[in-house]
Amino acid sequence: MTIGWHFDNSYSKLSKTFKEEIKPTPVDDPKLVILNNKLAEDLSLDLSKIDKNDLAKIFSGNSLPKGSNTIAQAYAGHQFGHFTMLGDGRAILLGEHLVNKDKRFDIQFKGSGRTSFSRGGDGRAALGPMLREYIISEAIHSLNIPTTRSLAVVSTGEKVERENLLPGAILTRVASSHIRVGTFQYLAAKQNINDLNILIDYSIDRHYPEIKASRNKAIDILNLVMEKQCQLIVNWMRVGFIHGVMNTDNMAISGETIDYGPCAFMDQYDPKTVFSSIDRYGRYSYFNQPRIAKWNLARFAECLIPLIDEDEKQSLKIATEIIDNFQNIYEEKWLNMMRDKLGLFGNDMNDKVLIDDLLDWMEKNKADYTNTFCYLMNIKINNDEIYNNKDYISWSNRWQKRILINNNSKDKSLNLMKKSNPIVIPRNHKVEEALKAANVNNIEPMKKLLSILSKPYENQKNIEHFQSPSNDKEYQTFCGT
Ligand code: AMP
Ligand code: MG
Questions:
Q1: How far is the CA of 259 from the centre of ligand 2 (A)?
Q2: Is residue 111's pLDDT more than 90?
Q3: Residue 153: CB partners within 8 Å, gap ≥ 6?
Q4: What percent of the chain has pLDDT over 90?
Q5: Under 8 Å CB-to-CB from 356, ≥6 apart: which residues?
Q6: What is the reported pLDDT for 470?
């Protein structure tokens, strides 16, 4: 079978510290649940002539592709603030697939059996959470936000034991790499300077070739990763995405969104929104995401201290200055993003107040975040009586005046807004509905949902249901491990 894999496995060539060589554990009865044909095409894979049974064998790891060299990657991480040595406990990297000889993608199985990093876990994953990752990661991609992708989900024919017995599954994840802040922390914890340098060079080669010739790679990579993370979080804030478990092992050096566990999108605007059942203190709430990103980047900076300067004091001073600049970079990006959402060109000194006033109004009036911006774009939404409110009208008058300064037109503003404001997001009730059906072998609702979410900025017909907020104010998500 030649489907077009071109493996070139640079990570598995790194020393023993970085990984364990291990094969996926074969599964009983693999069945293809869903395949991402469009992504397969983008990866130059031709799956059209392969029957479903063979696809299931391929995407379960029962039949490994030629050229793959399977490993589990070592990493550490601060989980809810506590440092732990982790590693791929239920994921196995097949290797790096090259597209057009130069674009490099990690191909990884999630749920593929135990590794030496599994600790107490079974190395397996349940169908629901894997399909959930598929839906949300593909939605995030269509929202033009950097993310790992989902190529396939296969059910294993085995049960996994969680609170109940659940059907097992394996997700094939595609990423520009799986190097995490936690990967650096792993080597730093082992006080392995040589390997740390190797990882920096490797990461730069893969993600930041522009600083290959830099005189201080540690400083430059810290700045670049910080910039990428600021941009990522700003994008999450733009669409109301709450990652839910921003541990340092779930922060990728590439700047992609990674590890979809208890994530969900906010309906009603409330900065304190938390969905994850285990996030009792709101550490990873909507509003806290930038603060936590900064905290994680400070952990990244700590790993680099021995490499920034020979003098530790000087190193600390430099790293601190860089991290202290997070706020400035983030705030500027955030302000510009919000200007785009409101269709504001140029800068006006009252912009921040105008934006904050709208957010405050939304919070006080329990307005839906996504739909409020739809309303501003004159897109029909249900329950729009809320915008008859006099505070809203007075805010709207200020907004309309602001749009017109510098000879701007409403049309130009609208065009800007259309690129920033999704009309449809993965509403929690729709995601749950799709997963419930998939659990009893009806994949059609999930396919329908995926199709609508693939065009979030288009005004599609008959999607009112997909635009309506969830009624369930107590909605909770679970890590699903
Ligand atoms: P996550 O919550 O998916 O970011 O995972 C955190 C850590 O727990 C990682 O080291 C995972 O590999 C590990 N882990 C999660 N679920 C399992 C499982 N079912 N079996 C073994 N290890 C797991
Ligand atoms: Mg993780």
A1: 5
A2: yes
A3: 33, 34, 59, 127, 130, 131, 134, 169, 170, 171, 172
A4: 95
A5: none
A6: 87
Question: Structure pTM?
Answer: 0.98
Q: Which ligand 1 atom lies nearest to the CA of residue 86?
A: 10
Active site residue 249: yes
pLDDT at 472 over 80: no
Say what angle helices 410-420 and 326-341 make with each other, to 10 degrees.
120
Q: How confident is the model at residue 199 (pLDDT cuts 50, 70, 90)?
A: very high
- Find, among 246, 274, 243, 239, the residue nearest to 473 by Cα: 274
Q: How high is the mean pLDDT of the chain? A: 97
Give residue-wise pLDDT tens across range 435-461: 999 999 999 999 999 999 999 999 999
Q: Which amino acid does the sequence have at 77?
A: G
* C-beta of residue 83 within 8 angstroms of C-beta of residue 72: no
Q: Which of 144, 148, 67 is nearest to 105 (CA)?
A: 148
Tell me the C-alpha distance between 341 and 290, whole Å: 19
User: Which residue among the candidates 106, 195, 249, 279 is catalytic per the annotation?
Assistant: 249
Q: Rounded CA gap, 97 and 149, in Å?
A: 14
CB burial of 171-204 (b: ≥16 within 10 Å; e: otherwise) equals bbbbbbbbbbbbbbbbbbeeeeeebbebbbebbb
Task: Pick the closest to residue 332 from 340, 181, 320 (CA basis).
Answer: 340
* Closest alpha carbon to 463 in 370, 388, 386: 370
The CA distance from 231 to 188, in Å, is 26
User: Closest-lying ligand to the alpha carbon of 169?
Assistant: 1
